[in-house]
Amino acid sequence: MTYCEFCGEQISYLPFTCKFCRGTFCKKHRLPENHQCTFELKHVPVVPTTPRESQKRYPDLAVKKPATQEYLTKGPRVLKKYLKRQDKQRRQAMRSHRESYRGAPQYNYTKILFAMIILFSIIGLVFLSSERAQYMYFSLPGLIYNYTYHTFFTALLVSSTDFFGLFFLFIMLIFLYFMARRIELNHGWKFLIKLYVVCCLFSALFFVLLRLALINYAPLDIYYRWEYFGFAWGGIYGLISYSIFPIMNKKITALMTFIPFRMRGRSFLLMIILIRLIPGLLFALYSPIYLLFYLPELGGILGAYIIYKYQFRRI
Fold it and tell me: CB-based burial of residue 61 (10 Å sphere; 0-12 exposed, 13-18 middle, 19+ buried)?
């Protein structure tokens, strides 16, 4: 049986051992202050003096030398093998990183969408030059008299009406590519296509409302060259606006201008709206037809704002 060294009481359970004096005590006198402990270490650990002795006594706590230092002490030949092995491991890590990067999303649908916009815009320019624009572009007379309902789909990817507009479209898509691929990466390709289509449809809605407002000025029974409309610019403005909405109060660098400058997202969005609104209103003083050239693209911004607010409420 075990007895407490302070009070002499018999201990019927596992006794307590003091870590200082190494005495055996009961649960009442187990603390050093309860058994008048002298705090003298009777069990002094033996500290090894050499690394080899420390490795024998405490193999888990032995401090190893750095790999380079260890190989330096063994000679240049061993060090050369060590560096070669390190270089091989580095190349394998880089190769595995490249393979994992190849498996990452490559923004294929962003590329496909932009390529189709350029292709359909070129085809639309050919149709326009051959006086068959009503079969490629959207127009209310073509929809009513020629039943060109397919233009609801073809006009989604048509934008420009001349070579200068086609060149400007190509430059704009280069700057927009980074915004669009970020949308595809964060929300998926289905959301990217849905966002583009919805913005194009809102642009078409603006065009139809403006065209019906000008019906007295330009009747629908006459084909006018200026009323052939493509919705692609509405989708482009929608993609730009959707990328700006989350950073309205942050400063961004405007790269879509000839001279890059920094401004807040709210100011940049306002500048985009004014670029379309001010020329349209000024030219409308000369002829109301110019409203159809500048204002329908603002519908794409409205469509992007509605989708952004709807998504924000769902979150």
Answer: exposed
**Would you kindly state where each structural domain of the chain is located, as residue ranges?**
51-102, 108-314
The answer regarding whether domain 108-314 maps to CATH 1.20.1540 reads: yes
Alpha-helical segments (H) within the chain: 51-57, 67-72, 76-102, 108-129, 140-145, 151-154, 163-187, 189-213, 232-244, 265-284, 291-294, 298-314
Q: How many CB atoms lie within 10 A of CB 150?
A: 10
Element (H, E) at 155: none
* Cβ neighbours of residue 190 closer than 8 Å, sequence gap 6 or more: none
Half-sphere exposure (CA, 13 Å, Cβ side) for 258?
Answer: 1
Give which of 46, 39, 11 is closest to 27, Cα–Cα: 11
- For residues 173 and 196, what is the distance between their CA atoms, to the nearest angstrom? 13
Would the pTM count as exceeding 0.70? no
Q: CB of 252 within 8 A of CB of 241?
A: no
Closest listed residue to residue 252, CA positions, set 239, 236, 267: 267
Write out the two tokens for 167: 């060149």
What is the DSSP code (8-state) at residue 216?
Answer: T
Which residue has tokens 């849905």?
194
Q: Among 52-56, 130-134, 195-199, which range has the highest average pLDDT?
A: 195-199
CA distances from 303 to 6, 128, 153, 175, 226 (A): 86, 28, 17, 21, 24
Judged by DSSP in three states, 273 sits in helix
**d(Cα 202, Cα 208) in Å, to the nearest integer?**
10
Task: Give the integer Cα–Cα distance in Å for 230 and 121.
Answer: 9
Which of the four pLDDT bands, split at 50, 70 and 90, describes residue 282?
A: very high
Is residue 202 within 8 Å of 236, Cβ to Cβ? no
Helix (H, G, I), strand (E, B) or coil at 11: strand
Look-up: residue for tokens 């949308």?
Answer: 183
**Tell me, what amino acid is at 34?**
N
